[in-house]
Amino acid sequence: MLWHPGRVADPTSAPSPVDRPAGTEDTPDPAGAEAAGGATDALDALVGDWLTVPDVAERLGTDVGKVRRMLQDGLLLAVRRGERRVLSVPARLFDGDAPVNHLQGTVSVLADSGLTGAEAVEWLFTPDDSIQGGSPIEALHSGHKTEVRRRAQALAF
């Protein structure tokens, strides 16, 4: 199953029914929980600061339900992390009190390129000296959406 903006990333497993729609709070699957350390640690090293869904709601001045809709609509990306598999959003996806400008379109291009949600987060945060700002997320912060999306489209080939 390919990931799409309405799916929440699970860094502990391959794209499958384990990728859950935003808003589902299922109990962790034993196989995924056992493998959680390595994939989550790698993402944590790249991303740094994370926000829970309630934290995002507070930052945006809205309710948790609206944040879950934003995740379903591909306005934001979230990954289930940690032992309790808490739904978490990279803090750098925000520019002040709003999502980074042009993030939604970029998330859509990444999904169309076949990346899972966790892979999309990893791609956005992976350092790349050949792009303005040093990584795709920093390039988006700098207003270089065309370059970021061109590179995201190239992933499909």
Automatic annotation (TrEMBL):
Rv2175c C-terminal domain mapped to chain residues: 100-156
InterPro entries linked: Rv2175c_C, Rv2175c_wHTH
Pfam families registered for this protein in UniProt: Rv2175c_C, Rv2175c_wHTH
Domain of life where this protein originates: Bacteria
Domain DNA-binding protein Rv2175c wHTH: start-end pairs: 39-94
Region (Disordered) residue spans: 1-36
Protein name: Transcriptional regulator
Organism: Angustibacter aerolatus
Lineage of the species this protein comes from: Bacteria, Bacillati, Actinomycetota, Actinomycetes, Kineosporiales
